[in-house]
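ok so I'm stuck.
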Amino acid sequence: MMRIIFEDFYKDNFSENSLPREKYFGFLETMNYIVLNLPQIREITNWVSYPYPNRIERCKHLENVYFESETMKEFVEKAGVLE
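replied:
not stuck anymore, here's the structure
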């Protein structure tokens, strides 16, 4: 469900700067990692999400960017995925 919500958000806010398919899906996987490990989500699900081995550094970096951002739009812009 989170993925569907994010896809709608992305279309509404970044449709003019849409990413290549592979980069977009990589970013969605990073979003899954970040959101599924939020304390409030882990409290409900008791899950721990792990990034793919080739994305560990990127996920950890973007997790920090996520917590420094005040809005999801700011996060996506700071994440550098639109470049």
